[in-house]
């Protein structure tokens, strides 16, 4: 069954497995050697790391590129008129998908597809809501609005397939598509945070990793998160930012 035919299929709810981040091995803590403002999202491949950040004072949004070792490579401005709040981004084989929204809930966004090589816009579409994070699948683009209280599912041309209310209390700030699931991270109302695996098409949480805080007192899931296989990268701190790379157990 393909994802598009499964979008209307309900899945019986199950209790998620629960773990702690301190059970995972911290492989590296990497300083990002370049100016980063209020961090929003992160993604990576074997050659590069991409980060979004916002300078609210000057109403500017940025897309930054670093090497895997944290060396600065380039930065571009990506605001779009009154939309200057870039969110959690997602990379596929050739593109970066970046939401840029007004800095308020229930507002508007533009979703941009940008070339990994040039960072130039390849395609874009508008959304009448604040979209704070996106994940890209082979067929779909999935977005979360302000604190991910609702999920949007579009095709790659921006045609809305469905809209789904979130059933969790986690305010997802960044999300990725990995292993057939959405992996999303963010804070919770009690000050804790978690990384969660959401089954498609139901968006039911099947796995949860509770996360603590960095030695600067910042929740690990405050902002940026990316995952490829069992390699988890978290970018919670504003500049000077550090990238925390973990090896998950499974």
- Estimate the strand proportion: over 45%
Coarse structural class: mainly beta
Query: What spatial order of strands do you see in the largest sheet?
Result: 1-19-18-17-16
Q: What is the tally of helical segments? A: 1
CATH architecture: 6 Propeller
Mean pLDDT: 92
User: How many structural domains can be distinguished in the coordinates?
Assistant: 1
Morphology call: globular
Q: For the CA atoms, what is the radius of gyration? A: 17 Å
3D structure, described in words:
The chain has one helix at about 5; strands at about 15-20, 25-30, 40-45, 50-55, 60-65, 70-75, 85, 90, 95-100, 110-115, 120-125, 130-135, 140-145, 150-155, 160-165, 175-180, 180-185, 195-200, 205-210, 225-230, 230-235, 240-245. The protein has about 250 residues and is mostly beta strands. The protein has a single domain (about 40-245), classed as Neuraminidase (6 Propeller). It is globular. Mean pLDDT is about 90; it is low at about 1-10.
Summarize the structure.
The protein is mainly beta and 250 residues long. It has one helix at residues 3-6, and strands at residues 17-20, 25-31, 38-44, 49-55, 60-66, 72-77, 85-86, 90-91, 95-101, 109-115, 121-127, 131-136, 140-145, 150-155, 160-165, 174-178, 181-187, 193-199, 204-211, 224-228, 231-235, 242-247. The protein has a single domain (39-247), classed as Neuraminidase.
């Amino acid at each position: 069954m393909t994802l598009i035919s499964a979008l209307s299929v309900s899945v019986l709810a199950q209790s998620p497995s629960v773990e702690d981040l301190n059970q995972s091995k911290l492989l590296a803590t990497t300083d990002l050697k370049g100016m980063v403002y209020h961090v929003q999202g992160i993604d990576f491949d074997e050659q590069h790391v991409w980060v979004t950040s916002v300078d609210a004072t000057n109403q500017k949004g940025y897309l930054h590129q670093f090497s895997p070792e944290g060396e600065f490579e380039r930065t571009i401005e990506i605001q779009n008129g009154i939309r200057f709040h870039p969110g959690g981004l997602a990379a596929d084989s050739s593109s970066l998908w970046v939401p840029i929204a007004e800095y308020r809930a229930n507002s508007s966004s533009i979703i941009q597809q940008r070339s990994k090589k040039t960072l130039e816009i390849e395609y874009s579409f508008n959304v009448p809501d604040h979209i704070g994070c996106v994940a890209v699948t082979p067929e779909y683009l999935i977005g979360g609005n302000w604190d991910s209280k609702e999920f949007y599912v579009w095709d790659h041309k921006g045609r809305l397939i469905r809209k789904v209310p979130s059933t969790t209390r986690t305010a997802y700030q960044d999300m990725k598509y990995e292993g057939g699931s959405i992996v999303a991270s963010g804070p919770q109302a009690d000050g804790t945070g978690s990384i969660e695996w959401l089954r498609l098409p139901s968006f039911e949480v099947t796995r949860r990793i509770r996360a603590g805080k960095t030695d600067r007192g910042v929740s690990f899931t405050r902002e940026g998160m990316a995952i490829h296989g069992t390699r988890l990268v978290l970018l919670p701190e504003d500049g000077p930012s550090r990238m925390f790379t973990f090896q998950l157990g499974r």
